[in-house]
Amino acid sequence: MAALTDIQQRDVKYQLHPYTNAVKHKSIGPRIIDRGEGIYVYDDQGNKYLEAMAGLWSVAVGFGEPRLVEAATRQMQKLPFYHTFTHKSHGPSIALAEKLIGYTQGLMANAFFTNSGSEANDTVVKMVWYYNNALGRKEKKKIIARQKGYHGVTVASGSLTGLPANHRDFDLPLPRIKHTSCPHYYHGAKPGETEEDFATRMANELEALILQEGPETVAAFIGEPVMGAGGVIVPPKTYWEKIQAVCRKYDMLVIADEVITGFGRLGTLFGSERFHIEPDIMVLSKQITSSYQPLSAVLINQKVASVITSHSGELGTFGHGYTASGHPVAAAVALENLNIIEERNLVQNAAQSGAVLQEALRAMADHPLIGEVRGVGLIAAVELVSDKAARSPFDPVGKAAGAVYEKAHEHGLIVRAIGDSVAFCPPLIITPEQVRDAVSRFGRALDDVTRQLQA
Ligand SMILES: Cc1ncc(COP(=O)(O)O)c(C=O)c1O
User: Fold this and answer.
1) Would residue 403 be called left, alpha or beta, if left means φ above 0 and alpha means ψ between -120 and 50 degrees?
2) Is this prediction's pTM over 0.85?
3) 328-372 confidence digits (pLDDT tens)
4) Which of 154, 286, 379, 418 to mutate to test the pocket of ligand 1 (most atoms within 8 A of CB)?
5) CA 422, CA 433: separation in Å to the nearest integer?
6) Residue of the nearest CA to atom 8 in ligand 1?
7) What is the gyration radius of the CA atoms in the chain, in angstroms?
């Protein structure tokens, strides 16, 4: 193993990294990404990578977009910071709230700004509790999320997340957060069960959980239209229709966590549009600024907004908010980023390049290591299996996908390993030709790993 460079040594010495094995990190050090341009990033050794994960599912317009730099600079010069507490406001946050609400075509009424997906979902939990207290429903507080769902890492949002690594030894989840099954047809369906039947069973399971907990105690259901960090899991046909019907039956709020699926990822402006979800609350982040600035938003419909508004009047304040809620620089960057998404038809591009991605990956489905290819638009995953017929995982889980992730760097490609799956979520600007290039690099990495496993 090569000795760590000076900058790697400083990283290892001073920084504790998120989602990293800190012991292993001390010996292998970080790969240092130095700059980015379009769909590519470059490390400090001069290596170029096609960033097929858009960073963290987030850089819609690509790296190095000068218009976002200029928008930030202009706003920094004019008003680098101001808050939105206590009846103060500023142009960028107002314009952004108006634009986001406009995008929902009347479905949503108000936007509340936060700084990360986690904070947004934390805010959602508090809003759901506040809403039910305002309605005098002191018991109606439980929120149902899903196994493998990802909603962040704060105490409340980490509780909503349904992944063991986010709970283990963090003393989570909180008692009022419950989890229902992950709607993954490939693994979850019974022999002969159609997607529609599987979706019905998932909805029945949700209803059974509500009845077991007591409907008077269950306030809301939260889900990502397509699960992202849990492995890019696309719901079975009719799933969202059936889940929403159960929620409405028990007077529960429906929360769509669109942190990844918002702003074109699935080839529609929102994932809710693609899956016919009519949420009461929508959570947005990541592609809202292409992650050039930290920003997230919670959109609430009129039903929720009216209750929260009048309750804040009774209590004297809505006692929640962040110093940087609606930060003017982040909001200015978001507005320019959304303008670019509109002007360059990036939602449509996601549909077109996404169709190429889905087709090119599905064309590899006969590969002996590939169990399932799944995805919608410009998000996809290839699940690797140790036994194709039995759909069995590797031992240990992630052995092959982790190796593909590592090897892909040698082929100039950044993907993500999630368990046994390899995920793709490139910038929305990617062209069909660049998609084919990404898939071919992946194919070469997969072949290398196949040979390694056979050796
Ligand atoms: C659907 C979803 N919700 C919430 C989050 C948390 O966002 P953040 O990492 O900005 O806190 C993520 C992050 O990947 C996400 O994918």
Assistant:
1) alpha
2) yes
3) 999 999 999 999 999 999 999 999 999 999 999 999 999 999 999
4) 286
5) 20
6) 117
7) 22
